[in-house]
Automatic annotation (TrEMBL):
Name of this protein: YchJ family protein
Species for this entry: Paraburkholderia kururiensis
Signal peptide: none
Organism domain of life: Bacteria
Pfam family, one: YchJ_M-like
Region span, Disordered: 1-30
Segments forming domain YchJ-like middle NTF2-like: 49-145
């Protein structure tokens, strides 16, 4: 992907806030370019499911549908996946908290997270335990998850 293709602007601070299970409260957010920008714009492979999860959250914030497709297992990726941030019912993402990162083996991992967002002025919490699979190419991808809408 070329960075000029969409003309989209990138934030200074990373939307994911470097969320992690052991994150201290009040930690300063990392720069986007040093955090999820390496994966979304730089094409680097996320080293663990944790970093992939964070970068996918940031991709939702930024409306990067192509990155979401690239990091979604082919078997489970919705054919009509498209994140349109300008749609009237588009969620406005407010923050990410990661509760748990559980590496299961070399190619399987789980991440439990809470993402806060607003739709039409109403606040929601998406609480999900996501499953990730590492492909033969060494890249982690999202498979599916158990969602608790709160
Ligand atoms: Zn980030």
């Amino acid at each position: 992907m070329t960075s000029a293709s969409k003309g989209s602007t990138r934030p200074h601070d990373c939307p994911c806030g470097a969320a992690a299970p052991d994150q201290k409260s009040g930690a300063r957010p990392p720069r986007y370019a040093d955090c999820c920008g390496r994966f979304i714009d730089g094409g680097a492979a996320a080293p663990r499911a944790l970093e992939l999860m964070r970068s996918r959250y940031s991709a939702y914030v930024l409306g990067e549908s192509a990155y979401l497709r690239d990091t979604w297992a082919q078997e489970t990726c919705p054919a009509d996946l498209d994140v349109d941030r300008t749609a009237p019912d588009a969620p406005r993402w407010l923050g990410l908290a990661i509760k748990r990162h559980t590496p299961i083996d070399e190619t399987h991992a789980e991440v439990e997270f809470v993402a806060r967002y607003k739709v039409g002025g109403r606040a929601h919490r998406l609480h999900e335990t996501s499953r990730f699979l590492r492909g033969a190419d060494g890249r982690w991808r999202y498979v599916d998850g158990d969602v608790r809408e709160e």
